[in-house]
Design goal:
The strands form 2 sheets. A 4-stranded mixed sheet has the order 2-1-7-6, with no helix packed on it. It contains 1 helix and 7 strands; from the N terminus they run H-E-E-E-E-E-E-E. By secondary structure, the chain is mostly beta strands.
Length: 81
């Protein structure tokens, strides 16, 4: 799977069924080459155009399922801040 495939999938939190947005970037471990986290800008795909720089950095262990259209994650409210 390529980064562009991740970027086309909407990220949904399974705890409260909220839409978090779309993947903008991946965080890799330099030594192992494994994905450590996905990065989702708060406010959707185009938030960077309006000066918004806040983002969700979701650890890969929090991903429940990667489907054809969505990425289902489990993030509890205290972890989202």
């Amino acid at each position: 799977m390529r980064l562009c495939d991740f970027q086309q999938k909407e990220v949904i939190n399974s705890c409260d069924c909220s839409k978090l947005g779309y993947v903008s970037d991946l965080v890799f471990d330099e030594c192992s080459g494994k994905i450590e986290a996905i990065v989702v800008p708060k406010g959707g795909r185009l938030c960077f155009l309006f000066g918004e720089t806040k983002e969700y950095v979701i650890p890969f262990r929090c991903i429940c399922k990667i489907g054809p259209d969505i990425i289902l994650v489990e993030i509890h409210e205290e972890e989202r801040k």
